[in-house]
Anaphase-promoting complex subunit 4 WD40 domain-containing protein
Amino acid sequence: MSEPRRLRGHKATATCCTASRVRPGVVATAGEDGCVCWFDMRCKEAQLVMQVGQEPISSLCFMPGNEDIIYICSGSEVKCFDMNMATSQRLLQSYNYNKEEINQIACNSKSTFLASADDSGDVKIIDMHQHCLYKTLRAGHTSICSSVQFIPWRPWGVITGGLDSKLVMWDFSKGRPIKIVDFGLPEMKGSSMAQCFNPAFVHAIAVPDADMLDKSGNVCIVGRGDGAVDVINIESELAATRSKSTTKAHQGSQSTSKGSITTPGTEGKRLHLDYTLGGHVAAVSCVAFSLFGERGKFIITGGNDKSVKVWECSRYLDVGQSGSNDNILHHNINLSKKVNWLCTTPTESENLVVCDTTKIVKVYSVS
């Protein structure tokens, strides 16, 4: 692979990035310097460098349907900016509902709710129209909640991952979990003893956009602390839970069911990508679906082993698919630093943006 393009603008480590869905080649990056940088791949230099504050920025996202609006979090605060002016910005809102440091924020596809996951394990659901706290999701995680995403095909669906090794699916209208997958259970450790020594903390999750579902299916990608990546079918997991609940109701008090805490290996279709398939040998820090080419065809993962993996998983998630998946790893990119975050752009080239542990953002071309 050719040398990556280098994007300069940050004065400290770049922590996260996000790409425009509607303006190909436009990328926003954030860093420990409290700045957000806007890049247009058609230009050499950063188009705008915005000082949001003095604290490191941990996450950012565009408002779906109106990418002039961007949400940025640092510390325990979420800020909303209007970037409509090409060379200036205006603070629209500031939310201070989280009590501890926020790790990730996400907007739902209708731009009606924003979720923020923090170190306490709580997830705040914010009403973006009324500008108020809608619900607090609590008691799903017993440790840091590292990641959160809305489920686009479920109007009230949210999925979260935490450093308690749990993946939690929520009905946020009711504020309660509807499914908990525990990757810390012995049967979830995977086949590799080398990976067993690291906890299967959930560091990152991703769900496909609504227009990717024909290619990807109703799945969630889970990046784990032991280097493994799991692709689980959300609807299969929930259907299994409903089936178990029905069985329990018929069995009455003699049921031996353990409730909704289960393992995806026994509950539905699941793809387990570990080092035996060419996967990561250290914690996975970021996961994403590809926006380039056939949207959702590839899964992109980055890790603390200084590598980015491009997986072609779609054909293995088809109903009835069987046989070897030895060629599921489509591409491997070796880096010189650990990956903090990555995103993809809807362009034919310069379509993979990587924030590593330096202040320079790298851009690769993947096909």
